[in-house]
Write a structure and sequence with these properties.
The complex is a heterodimer of chains A (901) and B (115). Chain A is an alpha+beta fold and 901 residues long. Chain A is built from 30 helices and 21 strands. In chain A, α14 runs parallel beside α17 and α28 packs antiparallel against α29. Chain B has 115 residues and is of the alpha+beta class. Chain B is globular, with a radius of gyration of 16 Å. The chains are: A alpha+beta (901), B alpha+beta (115).
Amino acid sequence: MPDWNEQIRKQLADLNLAPAREAEIVEELAQHAEDRFRELQSGGATETEARRIALEETGGHELLARELRAIERPAPEPVVLGAGGGGRGKFMASLAQDLRYGFRTLRKSPSFTVIGMLALALGIGANTAIFSVVNGVLLRPLGYPDPGRLMLISETTPEFSQMSVAYPNFLDWRSESRSFTDMGASRSDDFNFTGTGEPEHLSGEYVSASLFPVLGVTPFMGRSFLPQEDRHGAACAIMIGYGFWKQRLAGDPNILGRLLTLNAMSCAVVGVLPPDFRFREEAQVYVPIEQYDGGLLRTRESHPGISVFGRLKPGVTIKAAQAEIASIASVLSRHYPATNAGHGAKVVRMKDNMVSYIQPTLLLLVGAVGFVLIIACANVANLLLARSTARRREFAIRTALGAARGRIVRQLLTESVLLSLGGAAIGLLLARWGTSLVLAAAPGSLPRSGEIGIDPYVLLFTLAVSIVTGILFGLAPAFHGANANPQESLKEGARGAGGGRHRAESVFVTVEIGLAVILLAGAGLMMQSVWRLLRVDPGFNTRNILTMQVALSPKVMASPPAVRLAYEQMLGRVAAIPGIRSVALTNMVPLAGDDNEIFFWRGTGTQPPQDQTSSAMFSIVTPDYLRAMQIPLRRGRFFTDRDRLESPPVVVIDEVLARHIFAGQDPVGREFSMMVLGTVRVVGVVGHAKHWGLDSDDTAKIRDQIYFPLLQIPDRFMSSSAVGQTLLLRTGPEPLSMVSAVRAQVAGPTQDQPIYAVQTMEQTVSGSLAARRFTMLVLIVFAVTALLLAAVGIYGVMSYAVTRRTHELGIRAALGASRREIVGLVLRQGMWLAAIGIAGGLAAAFALTRLMAGLLYGVRPADPSTLAAVALLLGGIALLACYIPARRATAVDPVAALRCE
Amino acid sequence: MEDRSFDNREWKKGSAELLLLSLLEALPRHGYELGKLIEQRSQGALRFHAASLYPLLYRLEKRGWIQGRWVEKTGQRRRRYYRLTAPGRKVLVSQRREWQTFVQAINRITGVENA
């Protein structure tokens, strides 16, 4: 039996009723709720359901509280007599007083307030920005119901810790496994959309009918796929993305049942996905996976980019699911040794899979941005120290009039928290603006970037940070101010006091400089890495190459000979465009994230068990590919127009594979075997083109490359190779200027062959560096901010020192010190601080930059030249910051300085 | 929304007091019973949930039209029964008259009586 009393009392809590009256109402309503509960249960409702309804009707949605508020009178405020009472009220009153006073003092010195707030705005804003990224990418759960139970299940091989799944394996996992409520599969692909004007390319997903139920997604309109629609040969049904429906189909309200032509198939729309649904960022259409080319789905040999998702049953742990899937996989590898030997399976959380690779980068940035905040705090603390020195008389008078020390500390802390809250408000704006700027500057560098934004958690974080910050940087100045000895302060007059403050200030500046060194070192190392990466030779000439995806006319897709002819004609038309040097087709573009692999083995025999085969990158190309890419030919020849289906199958291999299987011998003329295609003869050896990344290719597990002529692809694989080909052009003029001419020629006589995803090779290369470039960019922004703040800090300290020493400097000048000597005196003091800061910073950088070793390329974490450059840069800035006050020191008029006395 | 046929919130607001007073005319009843009676006699067209029913009862009680009293019956939790007071009886008579006038007027205009 639910405890109705407790639940109802909660509803009434805010009304502040007299206790007796409240008890009466609670009892009566509880009685009612119980009656209702029993009634619902006897009507067949489950206990939870009945309980929920009864509660909702009794108090639901604050209706009860609202109604009662109009009728019932709240209990009078208790009046507490005597000295002990009212402590809270008194505190609130004095807090209000502090706040009022704080506002007034801040308003009275606008320049201090503005400078302080701006420094804090930079620090807090940067932290808010980074936190909003961390929040959106790492912390926020995926936008599905109960996302913690959604798992990605991949195949594993000794070579790969994660590999796409063979469709028959997925079917077996799904039917054998008991750990998951269900599993779904998906495969990204491109679709050619025709029949409504211009031919158009759509990005889409092949999905199993079970996928959306597994994810817990209900369509915005219509329904999900039925199992019978996900069968080979079934009539084509599709679901579409909300954005595609709204923008491309004008939100057609009668969309359900409408026929759209995809890849020359006529497909009926059965559902529209909800607006906030993000599976993989851009899918516009979803097609049952069984509509995908049957050949590749039926064999365990092929792993055509299928991802498998499963939802854990309640109470099942990842470990248990992992053990079960692994045992199913081992049964499969015994049953199908030719294709599954050595294959296992791995279960990871869907979210971890999406974001774990970026985690180290984000944590690095969290650390870096923390430093920026500390620097900002140190700066503001210095400002406050200067002020508290100037306000000593004020505090002395207040102490003399009986103010307790704690009270003054609180007053000062209130002021600093006010200051930091003001800073936070500006910082929030900076953060919003900064995040969108950074995301725009580095598109594609972060997963889930659509979910980055300022939400309540971010606001809470900013609030917490600003309060903690305000207390942190306010503490030292507050105690400094409160420690004023009234007698001395009043006696000392306007010149202010020295010792303690001076020391604190010097410490702050030293810390600032030290932290700036660390940030600059980090930024410097990232810059070097990116710079070195940009100079890595990718093995081909990236200049003046244009790539674009092309799709063939739906009319030719059904017939392999027609596909071959259509491609040959397309190449002919494009090659004839003035300014095109060479043109080729390929299924993979290096550094673009494309991935197509094939199993091969030595000799000409039948396929050995899979653990005795190797994988190679498998590029299906046309004869001019080598010339267009300017990959060097090492031996033999590349393909010609005579390498056709009728002639014996030939391959060209790269030098890595040549070393791998023909160590020391000339590969040309030798044979080896490949899955599906059988025995092939090597006709040439070419240079290795970096495929996986400028940085990671050297250490990639699969580096062997095999090139195969498109025209020798057997009929049964032609249609799967025909979609998603990339047209690759080497141009004389600027590549992007050729786009419209190429578009016109690709479209062909039937005007139904679109191009899409147009990119220059240089854009592809720079895209492959996006994540690193993002890290570099953010670190540079932080380092420059740190540098500026540190410069301002040291300038402030030295200016103040000069003012404080006016008297002394005047005497020195009067005694005959030259300008040079006086400048030297001031500079020595400032540079001494800088030197300590730089030395400490270098030591810390030496230790901390190790943490970013994984993000660097071609440069060691404690790279001496980077550290030296950083030290020099900071030294130079510090010198400049000290020189200005030093110059001012020489302007001291000895007579005026002495007269002050 | 609790109402099945049409959104009758506005109608209910005007007539709720009259409904409760009428149901209490013959004998004292407790809140749950009142809610059920309204639902049954209106054949489901009118329903009051506790969140609006009890505040209304308290309001009537505050005006002195009805009076609540805890009654204990053996073997049951005690319940609060409401009875009509003398002033409440007067209000009921006048409200009932007003309501009839109102309904007749409406009927004359909308022609429901001829339908």
